[in-house]
Amino acid sequence: MIPDEKLQELRDRIDIVDLIGRYVGLKRAGKNFTACCPFHQERTPSFFVNPERRSFKCFGCGVWGDGLDFVMRMDGLGFLEAARHLAGVFGVTLPEGLVDRKSSEQQRELEKAREITQVAADLYREILESRPEGKLGRLYQQQRAISPELAETFMLGYAPAPAESGSWDRLVRHLQSKGCDLALAEKLGLVVRSDKGSLYDRFRGRLMFPVLQSNRKPIAFSGRILPEYARDADGREAPKYMNSPESLLYTKSKTLFGLHVAGQAMSRARRAILVEGNVDVVSMHQRGYAETVAPLGTALTAQQAAILKRFTDTVVLCFDGDNAGRKAIRAAIPILLDEGLDARVVALDPGADPDSTDPKRLAALLEEPGSALEWLVKQWVAQGALDSIDAQERAVAALQPLLGKVKSDAARERYAERAAKLLRLPVGRISSRQSPHGPPGPQGNRAAPSPPTRHAASPPAPARPLPELPRHQVALLALLVDNPHLADKAEQAGVQHYVTDRRLAPIAEMVVRQALVGENPTEGELLELIPPEARRQVHDAVFVGTFRDTQDDPVMLLKDCILDCRREQLKAESRRLDVQLREAKERGDLDRARELSLKKIEHNRKLANLDEHALIPPSQPPSGLRA
């Protein structure tokens, strides 16, 4: 195991904002950073990173921990493997020969699988860079204008064909020489067993694209066939791309090719570009579009859209300009909208792909990509949506559920107006909720949503917005959460009389009570005291940022906070007296009016003479102020 002092050194050296920022797009929120949680699907960020405590916490799913915990969860690593990886990233030297005694059988198999995949990636890379059997691979790399630097970034390699390597088992023999488990290599899809029982290489005559995690460790491969081997000896066409099967390392529906490079670029560019193939990804990076990724041998999935949402709110679809590309765009649009993403489309010329498109034209298209919904309506119009009233109705029926997925009211109205012009219909017809027909074209037989009946249940009333938290009470509470050593002074000052909002009072009581007995409650424990409907609001106000981002003496800040709260209480009481005084005068109740006037004068005197240097609690809780 790792010695305690080394483990502490590693934890101290980890820059948790830099680390987690490689996986998700972080935004500063007060003293913390926030993002949509990478461990569950959500649209409103509830994942917080605290650089001072070197920790993260999701208040949506409850996951929390430090940098080691994050990498173990995110990359599926064991403790020791995560520690080794982070030690390399942050420059900490760990002792040699460490063994994780707690490693389970499954974890050991995972580590073996990663080792085999790495051995294969290293061999493919070496063949492409310098081996004689990699000559055609190097020539293809030059033809596709892939620079040596970019080839290194993506760890490109080459799997030679039997005619080049002299055998069908080039990788098999190499794995065997390294002592790798060939049965496990077969499970990973690197080698295949013939009918006669012998093993041979799965990938042959292909430029190899390792699927890399954020730590640049390969978990799978995608191989692009070279033109020389596009047809076999019998004239049968080989698949353009061949991908690793799913394994204990790799789930293709949850993986995007190029994400190990593109993640941070997406955050900077505030968009992601989605292309079809791996060569397209590399080509786009070569042209400077580092925010580009691709699905792996599958249509875009909801899980992949959720990954994109971690980094950006906008996704540009830049698929090939053929029927397959247009079909893929149509399938991707509702998935992106479901995830709350702004879907955009770059319409390439028929038969073109990003790599074959003139760089200047591609740059112009990417500068202002069109709305995905507008692109979709144009496709329907081209397919005959204007040929009849029935075709128009089917287009409207298909469009309405997609419009309903758009979060922004302004954007939804803009899309509806544009669609109405394209379909030559009144905008009110597009905005209608009824969808009596199926979508246009070949999909027209799809069942349409049933229209609402008069007996349908009424939609639930919208939740009443929570009242705003009193800012001075929030500031006081945030100060106590960050400085539990002030608990005794806060108790002496009667803090319970100042934090009176029902959402905040339980936190103040627990902070003081537990700090006085030498304990510091966790954020989770404190938030459990808050009603669920107010939990996010309290968290954002108290645990994310304060109104007093300063290096001043905490004791003086405590005095200031309490005085602010007391001042607000007196002002609130004065306003209440003003209302009662006006009502008494309107009723003609002079005695009551005189009594209230005297109280108002007394309150004004207290407010004017408020002691700026004393922490003296009020003799009794202020009346009528507890929320």
TrEMBL record:
Residues 270-351 form the Toprim domain. PROSITE patterns: TOPRIM. Its EC number is 2.7.7.101. Transmembrane segments: none annotated. It is an enzyme of class 2 (transferase). Signal peptide: none annotated. InterPro entries: DNA_helicase_N/primase_C, DNA_primase_core_N_sf, DNA_primase_DnaB-bd, DNA_primase_DnaG, DNA_primase_Znf_CHC2, DnaG_bac, DNAG_N, DnaG_primase. GO terms for cellular component: cytoplasm; DNA-directed RNA polymerase complex; primosome complex. A zinc finger (CHC2-type) spans 37-61. Keywords: DNA replication, DNA-binding, DNA-directed RNA polymerase, Magnesium, Metal-binding, Nucleotidyltransferase, Primosome, Transcription, Transferase, Zinc, Zinc-finger. Residues 426-467 are annotated as: Disordered. GO terms for molecular function: DNA binding; DNA-directed RNA polymerase activity; zinc ion binding. Binds 1 zinc ion per monomer. It catalyses: ssDNA + n NTP = ssDNA/pppN(pN)n-1 hybrid + (n-1) diphosphate. Its cofactor is Zn(2+). GO terms for biological process: DNA replication, synthesis of primer. CDD domains: TOPRIM_DnaG_primases. PANTHER family: DNA PRIMASE (PTHR30313:SF2). Belongs to the DnaG primase family. Contains an N-terminal zinc-binding domain, a central core domain that contains the primase activity, and a C-terminal DnaB-binding domain. This is DNA primase. The gene is dnaG.
